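Researcher: Next entry in the queue.
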Amino acid sequence: MSVATLRTKFDSLLRAINGTTSTNFSARVENAYEALVMASVMTEYCAVYGAIRNFHFPSHPRFLNQSPGKFRVSRAFKIEFTSSEAFYFAADVELFGLNAMTGPAGIKFEADVVVIPVNTVYDIINNFDDYPAPQHLDSIYECKFGSYNKGQLRELLGLKRHTCYLRPSSTALRTLFIQPIVNSHPPIALKMVRPVVHLFFDRVTADFYDLEQIIIN
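Model: Structure for this entry, 217 residues:
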């Protein structure tokens, strides 16, 4: 897929959500794919949480960070739902791991697309130097646009281990896309996103780790 094709799909999804689209985009196909994934994720959240009360575009001209970094409100989309839930949607954010459950500590891993509940942002900014920790995350998406290799599965498992304990979720069962979150604490949804179907974990392993491959094209 070309950048122009990805831009057209991105615009279509955003118009379906909010009736308009962003004037900013990316010239690199990998980053453009992340934008398409983010718009698809926002569409899924609308399906789960219902009607939108307010939709906010990023105020920064480059909402795609282009490289791993801090979470910035100015580079994130924000959706407030009439059901009272509200989330930020951001790209290329570095995340603290489980060592940071009680305060900023340990190494950080990068995630391609993250969804952050609005009510956690004060803590991220004021106590975690703008780097989200597991308790600040609702879902994470790893975008694999290029060639497929087994190393990507190891990366996904590493990110899972970085952000979640493997034990029953402490909250009620919830589902984003298809895979329910059962064995993850905190209950963070983690998805690998690709434009075509490739060999993934066997079903038993994927269920055990609450992992899912999503096809967005």
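Model: Residues 26 and 32 are 5 Å apart (CA to CA).
Researcher: Noted, moving on.
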